[in-house]
Specification:
The protein has about 300 residues and is of the alpha+beta class. It contains 11 helices and 8 strands. Helix content is about 60%, strand content about 15%. Helix 2 packs across helix 5 and helix 7 runs antiparallel to helix 8.
Length: about 300
């Protein structure tokens, strides 16, 4: 069972007020129904969504619905539920048009109900365990895609529209947005799962970044130590040590004694062993003086 299926199963089991349920229903029918001269046909692969559609249409319109189930064996075995509606077809079509025409002027709750219906019909969300966070709606009509995009943007979702060969995809990549959407359409169990994985991945990424920073600092410290030790060797080779003051000579001796230490570590060791407080910047100041002497002598 995919993560999208889990969300849709949970959403369709919620008890909502009849107005929002009908908005979700008509949004679903607009994007996932086939309207012929004599009937409206709805093809659904998710059993929970099929029950939800059947129950809403039956209770609101009080009509008979022909339900057919087929088994599809292409690629993988799955059930296809076909709902055929022949009664009150014109009334249902009119209701669908009214919902679409009025949705931009509707309340926040009604817009969420509308988006929920669209998600149930043509939406999907990647399992957060996968590499990328991704939520999308696949729509056949350009105007429908841009309507969904406009509604999402109105309620502060960072959505984008992408043209495919025969469809339009409205998608969201931000994990925070996807989490908020799952919450808004009423899938708390799926939300907890999504957030658990997201927190784990964020923590893992933070640890990796810290490790990378630490490794970079180690490499930087090693490179700096190598330059300092080479400068000390050069001064000794050229008999230039006597040009330095006693404190600098003392720091040189400690660096030779502890060659792999960082500036901060060396400052702490010198402060403890000599009982003379010196900071990391103080140690670095002495090594910069050494570097200047070496550079001047090499130029000569």
């Amino acid at each position: 069972m995919t993560f999208t299926t889990i969300i849709k199963d949970e959403v369709t089991k919620n008890n909502e007020n009849i107005i929002e349920s009908l908005i979700s229903l008509h949004a679903y029918l607009k994007s996932n129904s086939i309207i012929n001269e004599d009937k409206i046909s709805i093809l659904i692969e998710n059993a929970s969504v099929a029950r939800w559609i059947f129950k809403l249409i039956k209770s609101h319109y009080n009509i008979n619905i022909v339900l057919t189930m087929r088994v599809i064996k292409r690629f993988k075995v799955r059930n296809l539920y076909i709902l055929d509606i022949k009664e009150k077809k014109d009334l249902i079509i009119a209701d669908i048009k009214n919902i679409y025409n009025d949705i931009l002027e509707s309340s926040f709750e009604e817009k969420i109900a509308f988006l929920k219906g669209i998600f149930l019909s043509c939406g999907s969300i990647n399992d957060p365990k996968k590499n990328q966070y991704h939520m999308e709606f696949l729509l056949k009509e350009k105007k429908d895609a841009y309507l969904i995009d406009k509604i999402l943007k109105e309620i502060n979702f960072n959505s984008k529209v992408l043209k495919r060969e025969k469809e339009y995809m409205v998608y969201i990549k931000m994990s925070e947005n996807i989490s908020d959407f799952i919450k808004l359409i009423g899938a708390p169990n799926a939300l907890f799962y999504f957030e658990d994985i997201r927190i784990y991945k964020d923590h893992k990424n933070m640890v990796n970044r810290l490790n990378n920073c630490e490794q970079a600092n180690v490499e930087k410290s090693m490179k700096s130590s190598k330059i300092i030790l080479n400068n000390i060797k050069y001064l000794e080779k050229k008999d230039l040590i006597d040009l330095l003051d006693e404190r600098t000579k003392e720091i040189i001796n400690y660096k030779k004694k502890y060659p792999e230490t960082s500036l901060a570590e060396l400052a702490e060791i010198i402060s403890l062993e000599t009982n003379k407080k010196i900071s990391k910047s103080g140690v670095n100041h002495h090594f910069r003086k050494i570097d200047e002497i070496v550079n001047k002598h090499m130029i000569k």
